[in-house]
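Hi C.,

You asked whether I'd gotten around to modeling the 173-residue construct. I have! Everything is below, sequence then structure, no commentary in between.
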Amino acid sequence: MSTQRLRLLTFNIAHGRGLTPIQGLTSLRKLRLNLRRIAGLLGELRVDLVALQEIDECSVWAGSFDHLEYLRTHAGFPHAAFGINNRRSGLVNLSYGNAILSRFPIAETETIVFGKRRLGEKGFLFAEIDVGGRVVPIVNLHLHFGSRRRRLIQLDLLVTWLRSKERDRGRAW
């Protein structure tokens, strides 16, 4: 059995805002430039799979466009999956969370959100990637930044979910 090398990267893109401290203050032109720079970096690193955090689907504060599709197109990835942790519609549309870009087919995904808030919620995106006929499980995890206690609770939820997933499959990955 041959082993295929898989280059992985995880990247919190902070809503595409770059060094601007608040995403709502970044112009559409600057957001697109920042995302193209990220796409360029992904190309330079020649990664096969990218786990992205704080990526927007169509949020007002981040230019009202799909950041994942923009990155997928500019970085040349054939496969992508979104895991939305936060969705708020109405006067101010917000939709963001975790995502995966992949050079290999994404066979299955599931999004788990840790709480019920519509803004600032964290969670994880689980995906099974088909790498040459072999299923590779990936967890793209975004934990609470300011509370160790909440991070530990979130990690416990992740481990419980993974054990349940493994039991349901009847085998380990």
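If it helps when you're writing up: The chain has a mean pLDDT of 93.

Thanks,
B.
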